[in-house]
Specification:
Belongs to the protein kinase superfamily. STE Ser/Thr protein kinase family. MAP kinase kinase subfamily. By secondary structure, this protein is of the alpha+beta class. The chain contains 10 helices and 10 strands. A hairpin with a 4-residue loop joins strand 2 and strand 3. The protein binds adenosine-5'-diphosphate and magnesium ion.
Amino acid sequence: YETNIKDMERLEELGFGTCGHVIKMRHKPSNEIIAVKQMRRSGNTEENKRIIMDIEVVLKSHDCKYIVQCLGCFITDTEVWICMELMTTCFDKLLKRLGKPIPEEILGKVTVATVEALSYLKDKHGVIHRDVKPSNILLDTKGHVKLCDFGISGRLVDSMAKTRSAGCAAYLAPERIEPDPKNPDYDIRADVWSLGITLVELATGVFPYPNCTTDFEVLTKVLGQDPPSLPDTFSPEFREFVKCCLIKDQKQRPKYAKLKSLAFIKKYETKHVDVGEWAVKALKEADAVAGTTAPRSNIAQSTLR
Ligand code: ADP
Ligand code: MG
């Protein structure tokens, strides 16, 4: 129903990224607790138009259970606030706080959810996400896994993406780093690459291009090295799935229909995995880890200074 920005009460910060801050808030009239993404509005009308278009896509995505639900937005002279359902955390924070890999079974469910969400966006709304990474895959303690942040997703214009500026460097597909002059457009398979990198990072616990201090170093390695792969401690079907996502030649890389036919997805579409139970345990463990390492890292920091 009609509501006012003054109805929102700020509770705490959930995180921040390149586009702004995400704040936990209470909607006073309904007493509902939600997440609000606050972004600065630039005077750039093109960008503002894109933000509104993205919000419309998310608002229309109520029928996909693997997409974080958008509840509405507030637009002021200086800011855009996007109100979303509140999730517990994202896989980026969980991995960093846990300090150890995410089990393959959980990643099976993450893969099913992410591929469903991405193929839904493409088929229903003609959108490619363009910023698939662990911090944009959220989870809650009931075991729901959902994709968020269409902040920079672009509508497919003439079935091809035109804007090439956005996306987190570390997860960029080769064709986005160095577009082929004869075929400079990229498609949903750039998101498939980002998913592959995300899965390797979550499965091994470390970013697959380690020891890079600049974006340039990462991008050079993405172009120059063989793609990352999973060691043989993982199941053959998981290794095969990741291998397909990380085919460097875009034209050889599968799209969603093909991915959905692979054994790894087929297995986790039907297999029962209690993601909720795991999430509760993992969050407790992460808190314990944070409790023991925080003072130590403070000492390290003060020693350095
Ligand atoms: P980025 O995704 O680039 O890290 P964002 O500004 O999109 O930056 O998000 C910042 C953090 O806020 C995320 O890492 C995530 O942990 C948290 N967050 C985002 N949306 C929600 C949500 N709906 N519920 C709970 N936490 C969220
Ligand atoms: Mg995000």
